[in-house]
Amino acid sequence: MLVGVTWTTLVDFPGEVAATMFFHGCNLRCGFCHNHELVTQEPGERISRDLVRKGLERRRGFLTGVAFTGGEPLLSEELVPLAQLARQLGYRTKLDTNGTLPDLLAESLQYFDYVAMDIKAPEHLYPKAAGVDVNFDSVRESVRILMDSGIPYEFRTTLVPGIVDSPEHIHAIGQEIRGANLWALQRFVPESTLDPLFQDLPSITPGEAKKLSEVAIGYVKDTILRI
After folding, report:
1. 1 with 20: CB under 8 angstroms?
2. pLDDT at site 98
3. 92-124: b or e for each residue (b if 16 or more CB lie within 10 Å)?
4. Around 13, how many Cα atoms within 13 Å sit in the side-chain half-sphere?
């Protein structure tokens, strides 16, 4: 369910001044997750559709987009109706997803103008990254769905020591998304995390991250490094 809204962001939706809406619940348990309160804690008060409508109506002419994130938004039955509402009010819509639910992704794509999907690790390290067993074929299917959709999208990978921190890791992921439009790499920041052990990890340096992004560009049309 929808439990949080940030009414103005310049970073969550490329090219848009957006509101970000947060859904409770996720099927993964990534130790380095920064939104872990949406995963492990009891949900707070549900934000109503009426409140969302009023907030978006007041901000027309200032905001241009709405980003839906979590948790994993595709798990919520409220996602599509809220995306439809945002579009009816003239907003562009963006979905953040972990890519493990290809059937729900395919059913929902028509309601979004942009999708950002996580590629968390090479296949053999996915359980370590996700904190649970993952059917990697589901991730592959989501990749195919997005690349065939005609909708603007990006794949995102967090550079986490011990999970994605070497050229070999980038090569392995790159082979899964070869030919994609955009691959966004971002440095892990050891702040509040689901697993406290990750708070003791050093960040990959900006220089190391740049070298990994130079490996990534060999597989996709464009890369971006978010430091």
Report:
1. no
2. 96
3. bbbbbbbbbbbebbbebbebbbbbbbbbbbbee
4. 25
Which parts of the chain sit beneath pLDDT 50? Answer: none
**Strand runs (DSSP E) across the chain, as ranges?**
2-9, 18-23, 65-69, 92-97, 114-118, 153-159, 183-187, 223-226
- Its domain, for residue 36, covers 2-159
Does the residue 135 lie in any domain? yes
Residue 208: inside a domain, yes or no? no
pTM of this prediction exceeds 0.85: yes
Place of tokens 């011990």: 162
Tell me the per-residue pLDDT of 14-47, one tens digit each, with 9 for 90 and over: 999 999 999 989 999 887 787 767 776 666 778 8
CATH number at residue 12: 3.20.20.70
Q: Give the residue among 55, 46, 42 at the shortest CA–CA distance from 22.
A: 46
